[in-house]
Amino acid sequence: MPPKKLDPQKIEIFGTEPGLPGVIRPGRTSVFHRVFAKLIDLGIAVFLAAGFIYPVGILIALTYLFLGDALMSGQSIGKRLFGLSVIDLKTGDPITYEKSFIRNLPIGVPFFLSLIPVWGWGIALFMGVPMILLELTLIYKLSSSMRLGDVMAETGVIPGPSWLRDWKAMNLRKKREGYRRSGVSVDVSHGEIEATEEQKSKEGENHSDSTTDTNVSKD
User: Fold this and answer.
1) What is the 3-class SS of 128-176, one letter each residue?
2) Residue 130 and residue 48: Cα distance in Å, rounded?
3) pTM of the predicted structure, to 2 decimals
4) Where are the domains of the chain?
């Protein structure tokens, strides 16, 4: 089954010389979301490495680190949470496993060194931390938010489906249903809650009844 194409309106296509295909350039994405998405993926890799016997755990973790960006049509677990997708800049399609492997070499190679007995994790940290800092600098400085792995694989990151957005939308729908049953409507665009005409009329009737009862008691 071919990978699902992403919304072409979320990318910009720039023509080159006449007769040559266009070039796709991703817009600037949130540095915050990209950093936390990668931290989640690294956390998953460390959990996998520690959860299985050596060296099986590290090999499973490496498999996820190298190929994770192609798991869900250009999304790893971290990217799916924060609504980021990786695309091939030549075609605009979600990246393949081959592209995912290439773009994750700068971080995957230091992690691979953790296979070395005894000193492996120390060497991995010694090489991995500067590489991660370099990647973060490129994401922050470049207008396209492309890191070294993106340049190597000719890939880019654009907005995509998000589990967090889906969860928020589901909670909002539940709240709206609850308000609707109680006669209250929700203005989704501003997040405000307004009483419906029916609710207002009921409140007016209750207020007039209470005023009548007060007058009767005074008489």
Assistant:
1) HHHHHHHHHHHHHHCCCCCCHHHHHHCEEEEECCCHHHHHHHHHHHHHH
2) 23
3) 0.68
4) 8-161, 166-212
